[in-house]
Specification:
- This protein is mainly α.
- Helices cover 46% and strands 11% of the residues.
- Strands 2-1-3 form a three-stranded parallel β-sheet, covered by helices on one side.
- The N and C termini lie far apart (75 Å).
Length: 141
Amino acid sequence: MAKSSVTNPRCPGRRQFLRTAAGGAAGLASILALRQPPAYAQTRELTFLTIASFVPETDKELKRQFEEWGAKNKVKVRLDIIAHLQLQTKIAAEVQANSGHDLTGLALGDADLFFDHLTDLNDVSADVAPQNGDGSARTTI
């Protein structure tokens, strides 16, 4: 009887194995050369800047909610609370440096000052508003 050329479909052939191994080795070599893990392996972090409330318990509750959300979503969170008179200066410095906090609680009128450096989040708020209220609130950060 002639030998059957049927191979096990769950076991890759020698050439497929070599291609996969070479690709994996090249990927590992690039990670080692760059000394930086891929983005999905990096710790995610969300930073939030806001002003201190005149009711100290409010700041404690905001911090508790922020940390709870971070733990639930596996995101490292940092809440920075500053005096309200320092907010515009801090935002201006972050805009000038083109880096800073991911989210910022703006005071009345600050959105006009920093309009060109804000991201419209109306699409996000439209998705979550029906679950959390009447949906009429609009958010711009």
